[in-house]
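Supplementary Note 3. Input sequence used for the single-chain structure prediction.
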Amino acid sequence: MVSRSVRLPLETYERVRAAADARGIGVTTLMRQWIEAGLADLDDSATVSLADVRRALASLSRPTAA
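The predicted structure, written as discrete structure tokens, is reproduced below.
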């Protein structure tokens, strides 16, 4: 692993931290996942967490308000 420093606006960091907390993972882990997913998009490969797949499938089965 290589360690790099990234400067983020406080509001951005707080949003990332909240997203990581909601997933039950650390901020660094979530950032790494997002970077890996972004790079996968560049080469047409897919990286999707099982939790994200489950959330997406669950949202499909919920009726939407009319």
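The mean pLDDT is 86. The CA atoms of residues 13 and 33 lie 15 Å apart.
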